Amino acid sequence: MKSNTNPEIIIIGAGPGGLTAAIILQHRGFKVKVFERADHVGGRNSELRLGDFHFDLGPTFLMMDYILHEVFAEAGRKPSDYLDIKKIEPMYHLYFKDKVLHALTNLDDMKASIAELFPGEEKGIDLFKQKEKHRFDLLQPCLQKDYNHFRTFLSKEFRRAIPILGIGHSLFGNLGNYFSSELLKLSFTFQSKYLGMSPWECPAAFTMIPYVEHAFGIHHVIGGLNQISQAMAKIYQEDGGELYLNSPVKELLLNGSAVQGIMLDNGEKHYADEVIINSDFAYSMSHLVPEDLLKKYSKKNLKRKQYSCSTFMLYLGLDTKYDLPHHNIFFADDYRNNVEDIFNRKTLSEDTSFYIQNACATDSTLAPEGKSTLYVLVPVANNFSGIQWDREKKRFRDLVIKTLAKRIPEMADIEKHIETEKIITPSDWEDTYNVYTGATFNLAHSLEQMLYFRPHNKFEELDHCYLVGGGTHPGSGLPTIYESAKISANLISKKYGD
Hints:
By secondary structure, this protein is of the alpha/beta class. The chain folds into three domains: 8-86 and 223-304 and 444-496, 3-Layer(bba) Sandwich (FAD/NAD(P)-binding domain), CATH 3.50.50.60; 107-216, no CATH class; 309-431, no CATH class.
């Protein structure tokens, strides 16, 4: 659809949500300008370079790759013209104290993997895929709707989905319908941390997340998932879009509650018909809007919301290669206690869980020959914990390295092979990357913060203002962030007609 009046759209932030909205609206004939505070695009989906070593700053799992194809199609493009996408198989490896489960997309192979470690439980995967496919098929259309009006709950799609929402049941409890072993159930729950909840509190509806992994697989982009953002920026500029890097936004320009444009840190003012906010939602409401203007999302009320955990990050450039698969999840020996430390006690665990990406097992472009990158993510409490990271940073870093050496015998000598490294703590996420309370996965995905009860794509407290990213509907994670941008772009397009 082409707009006849060429309305002007300003987008704050060149993260995956902002770039998705940009390529869609620019291709439809809107006049779009994107303002990005950093000197590069991508936000948390950007590239981190340490000398000759290349890392993804944030996301490393590309799930539901068909949504990426849909986004590119909206801009008249195909991902294959810009990206080299590889399927990862096995998807990932799950390490317990004395067991390693290989997660595979092929049903027969997954059954064999389960049967080897949990004899007699392999038939549960059949029921899991059958029932969770039904749940996903009913819920996906609901997640693609906007919830700017409460009446959306009355849609036929949502009414059909009500019986399978699993209200009152947890993710972990729901998995008991398929498996009896606690470890096997845990193998399908680690994703809940990134929704901001423990698997014992996460709504059962989110069992569809491990389902979509098993149904559609997990993919890697050669060069890193950051290449997606770089490809989107290229498409946007190919279509005539204006991209302004090193252009942090100081505040929104307002006439009452109507957004008219933005003012940059340098005092420049830019006006538009609509403004899309892609920067971290709670940070944006705390810094870009006058305190007395917002009610529902005032600074005081933002502090009362539930937020995801944070992450302690290690990016290691190694002078060697280890025989380790691409994606690896290591569970703490006492996993539930570790989860309690993160979400309820908000303290640091000595017995911690962690994720390692050894991307060079798949992608030789990320490090010099004979060397490799190692991306280590440790879920930890967000900054509501009060943890003093300036004091804990070195100690916790050493604990993580020692844990790697202990859990992975081949890495007993890892310390001496670290050529370069970077650490990002929850404090860094907040202070350097403008992530509210360091909650890297944004607002938690509890039922009272989902759908209509999450900040709306057409923001309810400001006129001419739209939201994209993990802080709005449908939630965090690359596929859902892309969906948020599609929803907001379609709302703007509908407003201006064809």
